Amino acid sequence: MQHLSDPTVESRVNAILAQMTLAEKAAQMVQVPFAYVTEEEAFLWARRGAGSFLHVMGEDARRIQREAMSTRLGIPALFGIDAIHGHGLNRRAAIFPSQLAAACAWNPALVEEMGRVTAREVAADGLHWTFSPVLCLGRDTRWGRIDETFGEDPYLAGELGAAIIRGYQGDDLSDGEHILACAKHYIGYGDAVGGRDSCDTEMTFRKLRETFLPPFARAVEAGVATIMTAYGSIDGTPFTASRKAMREILRDELGFEGFVVTDWDNVNSLVEKQHVAADLDEASLLAARAGNDMMMTTTAFYDSAIRLVESGKLDEAVLDEAVRNILRVKVRMGLFEQAMDRGTPECMGCESHRTSALLAARESVTLLKNDGVLPLDGNTRNITVIGANADDIRAQYGDWTYFTHPHMSTEAIPERPYVTLLEGIRACAAQSGASVVYARGCGPLFSETDDLDAAIEAAKGADVIVFAVGDVIEQAGEFRDRADLSLSGRQEELFLRLCALQKPIVTVLVATKPLCLTRVTESSGALIAAFNGGQYGGQAVAEVLFGEINPGGKLPISFPRHSGQIPVYYNSLPGWHGERYVDLPETPLFAFGEGLSYTTFAYSNLRVDQSKLQVRVTLSNLGDHKGSETVQVYVRDLVSSVLTPVKRLIAFQKVLLDAGESRDVVFSLKRDDFSLVLPNEQRLVEPGAFALFVGGSSKDSDLLRLDIVLA
Ligand code: BGC
After folding, report:
1. Which domain holds residue 622?
2. Mean pLDDT, all residues of the chain
């Protein structure tokens, strides 16, 4: 975090710490879950000097803060919330595409803006801290939280993570318009075996450093103020208890200067779930020693910490260090000067914020197949829209919006404006004079209202059918992993019946994750991945359908052909013994980096200046539409002492070209981009030959290759 080691900040922190009693220090390390305590208890915690509260907004937060400020030392509390793709727990907020959807834009400036807007709205609600971004890698798509990731690649996740952190935190945390970011979940959470939320990982520290650490290293470099510990474990040690992960790697090596917060009740889970501690005292000892500074929801840590220090089991210096880490952030944020009434209340859901959400939605639309049906032309007079997800704002918003959050009403609907796919199509069709008929048909879950016959009837008069498929929030999120990613409910059955009508079908995936769309892809004229596009997700897809915008999204994650093919991420280690399953190719249905445009891009003339590690390629727009292309650079270490991935993203640039335009795209690589991690966990570059690949996706057929030698 910027200037944390500022001596004036340090001396102020030390002066406060010197006045604190043991109990006040223990309280500072506790984060209280507002929804799980009574009002009286919340005030009691404020008076004790709890360091933070989570999931409390507006007037409740103000009352708690007043109580905290009226204590002996008047240390302000931090209020944290899960503002994951916009300040989603406020129904007036601007809702952006999910992290996964936003990642399709491959545009750091766009996610930085998403962070900036979210920060303004969170701050305007009296809060200081978002538990975002998720820097877990989405490598097993069965996992329920795939939508929260920036996809499967460490480099892309790191670049986007750093950008959104810059957006949340700005240059000056004390300006009232910015908030604390929290890089989570440190570490390996997304790699749980079988995609099962919170389960064990098959991680080693070498692998962790090679693949999972780089996004967190970028976050620390970007100055992230807080980091959240993962559930799960590494080689038998829960991450919550891993001194190596938190003290040696995060603090000593990466130089992290903010504070670490556990995830939900991690300390208690050492006892109740992971069984590595007999009781809460033992668990608190493990957690504090390992380097967790603040304990989310485990309020019992307070008594344990006091007991542990008083009995001589825990050195008070461990508490001092944790409290120092927390106070430093509070001082830097200017909370002692102004803990309340920060920010600009009028900005909540304001027009300029909503415009940012719309721009993000537009850039995130990813066209995966197009046999010429898109963009719809003037001959398209009758459009039939089918599928519950075409007109279900909950499905479009996805997770972490106020009506999907456990503490909020699941019945309520968000405040307008928002635009579903159906509404977007209707608006565009009104301009082109086409007629639009809608039939729900079915949704992702079986329902008594499913009516396939009515949908088929409605589609009979169509020139084109737009079929929205996907999932709903009941099939995703924490605790909700899926074993089977094929289309659920009666969606595939309906699709096959629609195919029998022999009309062009445009399939739109409105979902939290890649689903297995093998059959659907074969028989669709066009396929679009929209994921959870936020409040304007439907409008953005409609504009693409009608050619009002040219899609430029690229997948940040691979699509499996079948659930049995998972994991199918592109940067795997080399194997041999055949290139396919007996019953399936080994390639994904759609690869990392893939995404089409209404224009055609060509790559030529790949060259490299080895002395400067400068790579240059000519990109040409051969079509008649202006369009953007994300140029991707991958590397393969041709001979290395440990196995290295078959291909690894090391750079990318998004380029906008006019029809007929050509441009040289230049990348300045760093020597470290070619590094690997040895069995002794050391990162270095082994001299020798490397293959560089440049092109429009991770697929071999989309890449030019050039080999270089590094001395
Ligand atoms: C999740 C975190 C989240 C926290 C607070 C946990 O269950 O794993 O990602 O920030 O709850 O809501």
Report:
1. 601-710
2. 95
